[in-house]
Amino acid sequence: MAQASSSYRPYLAFVRAGKESLHRRLIAENPDRNWDCCVSWYVPPEPEQLAEHYCSGGFNKLDGFLEFWKSQPRPWPWRYTAVLDDDLYLKPGALSFFFEECERQGAYIAQPGLNWFTNITLKMLIRNPACIARRVSYVEVMAPTFSAAALQDLIHTFDWTRSTWGTDVAWACLAEGRQPLYVIDAVGMDHTRTGDGRPTAFYRKLKAMGVEPGQELADIRARFPGFGGQRTLKSGHVYRPDIPRALGPSAMWAFERLKFIARTRRQWAKHLRAWRARLEDTLGGRQPT
Question: Does domain 2-283 have CATH number 3.40.50.1110?
Answer without folding.
Answer: no
